[in-house]
Amino acid sequence: WLRGDVASARRILAEAFSHSKESEAIHLAAVKLESENNEIQRSRLLLARARQQCNTPKVWMQSVQLEREQGLYQQALHLSEEGLKEHPSFAKMWMIGGQIHMEKSPPELAEATKFFERGLQKCPRSVPLWLCAVECEIKQQKYTKARSLLEKARLRNPGADLLWLKGVEVELLDGSERLSHHLMSKALQECPTSGILWAKAIELEPKQGQNAKSVDALKKCENDAHVIIAVAKLFWRDGKNAKARKWFNRAVTLNPRLGDAWGAYLAFEMENGTSHEQREVIRKSVDAEPNQGLEWNKIVKKVANWRAKWAVKLKRFVEEVYPTEFNAKPLNREVELLLQGEDPYAAMATAQEEAAAEKDELDVKDEGGVKMESFEPATSFMGARPGWCFKMGMRGLGYYRDPKQDLGVKGEVKEEKKAKVKEEDEKK
Predict the structure, then answer these.
(1) Phi-psi region for residue 341, left (φ > 0), alpha (ψ -120 to 50) or beta?
(2) What's the predicted TM-score (pTM) here?
């Protein structure tokens, strides 16, 4: 499959089916093979068979997600309802159903609210489901309802730092800065070793108190990647680039799956680093395949980004979260190609070829200042021409000006002119 031999992959999966018809892994592998090769109808048929033969929550979820990706929201919602009849305590399906209502155009926020409420009755211990319900209320600017939901959620799930963090965000969105500070103090008493809360506490602190707050945070959780990023950002803000780079590197080493860390690191290098440093961050991030982070997942889990390569996801994250740094200075061509998902070696080769072609194809001016064309199209070789070479280049097949030959021709012309002048002098 990875080598491009889809037919052989299908044969192997067919053989696997004959041995184990009820295996969820085999069914989902077959669906993935077809959907990634844009065989959507085949995927549908395979999923319908999987729902009958193994009927697991994951199979139902994949069925819903396939229709959701195609933009067929009604079919997706119908399947989610059917799946929830079979697996009512599967929290992820409740989350997906509500999100589909929110993705519709125009968004059906009231319907999404009802869907999440039904889900919370079945899965009151699911923190991500509570967060989805709160997010839906925030979209409707119903901050009082969002607060009420969060209070209920914290009673059901004591010690859940993400619920406290969301509460702080709600107060900030509602313009209650004083209340957000008060809630943060309570949150840190409840979850004293939560790195994500300490990172937010550093951000909330006035500029003059941020360094002291970061010292407190490091005492409580010195090896938490969220705190390390917050400290790196302080060094970045103060222009201490060497220290910032060191702390960003430490954060991605501690938790290489944290997308928020990779995004911040690349944004920093885009503003302050060389193309080599930018390339290294992109390459390491692609190897790590990050799948964690509050900001990261908000962007990467959008339907439009599901099939994107890791480097493309990283680019889209930085574009959205750090637009100023992303546009701080023009990117090196090789870095651009990497962020488009090119293979590192192919990107390097392409960038070098383009640079060489650009250099070769610069319009040359003759000694009289007249502009000379750098390319003449030709369908076939029509004989050697001094100062030109025949090749397939960036502009297509034809004759391209060859700077090396051009210098040789110019040298010969100069010598001829000198000889003529000398001859005329001798006649005189």
Answers:
(1) left
(2) 0.78
